[in-house]
Amino acid sequence: MFDEELDSSPAPADGALRISRSGHSISRRNIDADAIKVLYRLYRAGHTAYLVGGGVRDLLLGRRPKDFDIVTSARPAQVKRLFRNCRLIGRRFRLAHLHYPDGKIIELSTFRANPDLESRGVEDEADLLVVDDNRFGSPRQDAERRDFTINSLFYDIAGFSLIDYVGGLEDIQAQMVRTIGDPMQRFQEDPVRMVRAIKFSARLGFAIEAETWRAMIRLAPMITRSAPARVSEELGRLLDEGAAARSLELMDESGLLEAMDFHLEAYLRIAARGGLEFDPDGKLIYRLLRRCDQQRGQGKLSRPLLFCFWVLPIALMEGLLSGDDEGDRWNTAVFDCVTRLGLARREAEMMSLTLSLFRRLALKRKRKRGQGRPLEEREGFAEALRLLEFFSAEVPAFRDEYEFWSQRLEDRRRAAGPPRPSTGLRQDVVRRPVETAERSRRRVRRRRLPGQEHTDEF
Question: Which domains does the chain have, with CATH numbers?
């Protein structure tokens, strides 16, 4: 991975471990070209700037980073003046996002220090939850305030060297997820870090350090103090990064699952006792999530569809096989599941639509006369069919239903024929004829008020 060869230059005054270009495996060829341009522009403007976080960690592990984050001495307002494509976001964390035409975003943050808890007042001394983290500091302070040692490494483009303040290189070699400092304090400052620890452990195949794991078990109920939107965002990333099944196991073992979604935790307990007809061995949700993990590189599953797999077993237990023709119990269960997740409105609506269509497909409920478009033409049908595909692969009793709807979709595509080549014009726009002067006069006359004399003067 990298050698123990250190830079021949003197050690930094702040005591950081600096590894020279020849002592690590990071190459500029594997770094996004726009990220390199951003680093050089900040340096030319007189600011310090480093590549930081998961991008550095993944480069060391030989993985392809999903994104490249940058930390700098420049304040947010200074970054805004340097980059025309900059947008400042965040309250708790004031960040700069650089937007590019292909949808790519490079995130810049300013070096920060640990929050000043003493200034929050005597009544809040026992409450470590951080609600404002815009206290600027030095590179060392910024490294020490990050969540885990493996995410605290800096890559300096000026000398092509790695900078390590907290032992991140050692933990990457040992394949260990460890908090920086006291885990009890770090998880109380931001309980979402517990979900992130599970995500990194499952995705990278790293173990969670013993003291860190004990703190997670003890503080798991504190996850309810975090904003639901932040928790759902981390849960979405956890589902999207190819290790959802293992993540669920770790969440269950740590107690986080019970605190985040006690309905799913209760389902796992009931399923483990073999009390469900469609899930006799109690492992259905794990098998579904493993299928999602396998599909990660073979056609990306949408975020709402991934959340559907997360809540599907609960809805199945409540309503699919209940004999309720109108689906009232199913709809109630779906509404409760979607509401608890705290998703954005559009994602929540798409989840509800997909699960509603899934029930109709699973029970082979066709469109009746006067009920509008066929199911195959409705929004969300493709997602519902994918959900039924995975479900029927694990519950063979529903295989006929999946094949029935797949065949109907294929027949409709054949009947529609090949798609017409696009002309670049909207076919649904009816062009109005050019209005002549005589038509204009007649239109004006029709608008004449009663008793008003006619005139052709305009």
Answer: 1-119+127-174 (3.30.460.10), 261-414 (1.10.3090.10)
